[in-house]
## 1
Amino acid sequence: MQTVQNITESIHYVGCNDRRLEKFENIFPLPNGISYNSFLINDEKTAILDTVDSSVTEQFLENVQGALAGRDLDYIVVNHMEPDHCGNIVELSRLYPNGKIVANKKALNFLDQFYPQVDLKENYHQVKEGDTLSLGKHELTFIFAPMVHWPEVMFTYEKTEKILFSADAFGTFGALHGNLFADELDYDLLYGEECRRYYTNIVGKYGKQVTKAMGKVSEFDVQMIAPLHGPIWRKDTSYLWDRYTKWSAYEPEKKGVVLVYASIYGNTASAIDYLATRLSNLGVTDLRIYDVSKTHPSYIIADIFKFTHVIISSSTYNLNIFPPMKAFLDEMAQLDIQNKKYALIGNGSWSPTATKQLTQFFAEFKNWENIAEPITLSTTLSETQKNEFDQLAAGIAASVSA
Ligand code: FEO
């Protein structure tokens, strides 16, 4: 059954939802599914802006055929060549052999790499930064946004209806619920956290490039933002813009402390619970405790972006950092998160080397300020060491309130 929705009179949503996929990119959990957005402009010429993942091909093609209502497809615009969006270019080209594939040089190279079994070169329509394409009443302008997620990414601005087709930018995890527009639902409740988890884990590493792309976009009059995942924005776009401004500058949104621990038999966990209780008693709000063996790193990373302070605590295992913590730290390090204040706690029943290894690891982080001497526990938080923890709590509380 067709699920086409109108964005405007002549621009149609032909995207699809996947609520069964367990992990996006085979790494990020999707408890609420995901939408793959695709848009069709019906003018003197017809154009599809991006396709969808191959898992939802059947629904997508039904939507496209329904929205075209017997017309031919003139253009397939490729803003992003990642398979969750390019997964139906070949299929569309088979159905609509006259459709020109509008993309930049990098995207066309990727198209050749991803689909070596087909040769679509005859249909390539290569564009450069700032090029325009008239469809009749609608005119598309191509704005390059490299590394807002991949190097070939571009945004497309439609001049008549003032819509920014923003590729992955401003998107979110979470399937659509029938309401296409962010102002038709409680965005904060349904997508607020997932939008942050999506940005921080997918694009978080490329803050500089996001800032640059936003600078280019600010020269256009944007009345609507249509990302490739999640709801479309036609009101209050400053909400999104403000979030992206902070995230891309690695500016914390809120004072608060994320306490991340790796604990084999619960003793490190217990010490962190004690520390958090002390912090709460000292008036520190917005505490978040995570067990890295339990919570997927993407959720912890999203909160680390959000808050000002991070406490890392790990047991020693085979003379190293406990593997789930090591894996978490490696994943976080890849994202180049900046502007955090942190403290470290190691634990071990013999040769508690985790403290030293954590210290070495964090010394490499850019713009991370160490606010306390690391503490080493010998198995449990003993009565004699409580004083050290109390001092640590006082130091963190003072730093949070500064
Ligand atoms: Fe939604 Fe970078 O793909």
## 2
Amino acid sequence: MRIDVLTLFPDMFASPLGFSIVKRAQDRQLVNIVLSNIRDFAKNSYKKVDDKPYGGGAGMVLMCQPVFDCIENVQKQDENPGRVILLTPGGKKFDQKLAQDFANEKRLILIAGHYEGFDERIRIGTNAEEVSIGDYVLSGGELAAMVIIDAVVRLLPGALGDDDSAACDSFSDGLLEYPHYTRPEVFRDMKVPDVLLSGNHKDIENWRKQQSLEKTKQQRPDLLK
Ligand code: SAM
């Protein structure tokens, strides 16, 4: 898989992409993450990529030209033009289902905005899908892109040590995951449930299913609808 990120702050990605599962997936060549700096495509001498909004109002708006040129530049680097995603607070809410959908793609192009956001013609002219990571406003799309990359990359076959662990994760079957325990058997008078020590796989499986349902009912009843 190839993931392009178009951003004004490529340096922000070094640490989140440089550790753990996402790093390992890149080392194993399961994913190629390519960062492009939108500012490199500014045509003016000040490398300006934003301007005042028509009609007045606060803040600055990302201009069409550098963003279009940046998209076209990355698209011509690969025969697959990719699924183009504009990160916006008003977009479709990112969830595990969309993460799986993205993980099935060969190429994603994530465009991180800044300031007041994008000139509307960027959305119209690129036909990009708008995606939000939640109902709150971040200063820029970089953190949103990192969240999406992390959630998608761990779903790529071979990214996790044990492929089954993604299939059991919360949301993958519409429910929250059952609780986990590890050594010791007793910690501050809190004991590991007997069933997990029983060695009876059928009973353990049933207990986990029931716990998963119970936890979802209590914490996220909306998921059961
Ligand atoms: N004025 C915009 C609004 O009210 O919808 C907010 C712009 S925000 C300060 C700057 C950029 O951060 C956006 O263009 C977008 O790329 C990114 N961003 C902010 N919140 C986001 C969210 N919840 N999901 C995805 N991207 C977000």
## 3
Amino acid sequence: MSRALQIYNTLSRKKEIFEPLKAPNVGMYVCGPTVYGDAHLGHARPAITFDIVFRYLMHIDYKVRYVRNITDVGHLENDADEGEDKIAKKARLEQLEPMEVVKFYTDRYHQNMDQLNVLHPSIEPTASGHIIEQIEFIKSILENGYAYESQGSVYFDVDKYGLDYNYGKLSGRKTEDLLENTRKLSGQDQKKNSFDFALWKKSDSKHIMHWPSPWSKGYPAWHLECSAMGTKYLGDKIDIHGGGMDLLFPHHESEIAQSNASRGHDPVKYWMHNNMITIDGQKMGKSLNNFITLDEFFTGNHESLEKAYSPMTIRFFILQAHYRSTLDFSNEALQAAEKGMKKLLGVAEIIEKLQPSKSTSINVEGFHNKLYDAINDDFNTPIAIAHLFDLSKIINQVNDGKATLTKSDIEKIKKLYSSFVYDILGLKNDSSVSTDDSLVSDLMETILTLRKNAKDNKDWATADKIRDELAKLNISVKDTKDGADWSID
Ligand code: ZN
């Protein structure tokens, strides 16, 4: 028998046996993206980390309601209470409606997530679609005396809260430290203390997205949306709340405070945080100018990339590290991941051809237990992958006649392999053709020459037919000044 699932709880700072509040139902909330730019590797990690959690919980027969939000209003530039709204700023620069920015980047985010084979969440609420819920949440905090109104904005009273609860229990930060760390920013004079955080912000004349409220025409602050939407869809207590470690403070710390202030108890049983991706040891981020978007990875179109990396290579690369470890990006690491993944996925064909014997010389049950133990140990995907490589060695041995499996054990191995590789780790065969395959390149050149000849002869029907047939194979052809370019979608 394999062990029970254990999850490292950031709040208790230890691994705990997973016991959902209302089994077999599980509520999971993960902070989603603020949609004002293309998704990068730093977005892929939480998406894939919690995709594994979602997939595995369903695999072991829980009914999971997975909520991942879209932040489309209220996330200010400096992640605190000052600066311009990230989406409003993008809209101003691009002369678009904020909701055009939101739609554009939400669509692109979804496309990237599909490419990475990340399952869709059960509910994907937006902050702007839940203004009423957020206003109600603020009202309850005000009624309980843990917030105050100041010049049309509402702030959370961290000092007052600290008399009854512990602000800092998740991140381990103390309010004295916060005081030192808080820079003097404009608008701070509206607050009793610089570490108080906004619940509602009165909009200034420049702000384009605002709604009426009892306090002012304004907009809800970022931390609040997750409290309001999490409570609406998953109830007052959520089983699992996840996100990147960069959200631990102030975002998640403030979510805990908001729920205690509104409901009188903690909002979450298990807090889970994935670690960051680094590039040459430095945190990846726009400010460091070292971030690479997912599209750039998939096309190889970035100066730091030696080649294009398929979505599955990115996924496998991320899963090769435990989600609580940092993961350092390099071309070598990605190329190693690509090779490893191809090897692992290549075994699927061998399994299909295995010939049964009268007896089994392999400990099939042992593999089964080792694989489940790895995932049950706080989703240890690198260990599970190591066991899968061992399993593929055995499969090759059976294929070479150096080990034996009975018919029923072949079936067990097949099921184990497909459960872990496809269902739990969420890997799949990328498009069978690849842009760096030289045969494909040569064939494409021939096909495009034929198309050019057709066009030169004004045979538009043939030229279009070639383009349309290629499109069916997910190959898009773009006409250029000197001929045509092609790419695999
Ligand atoms: Zn959040």
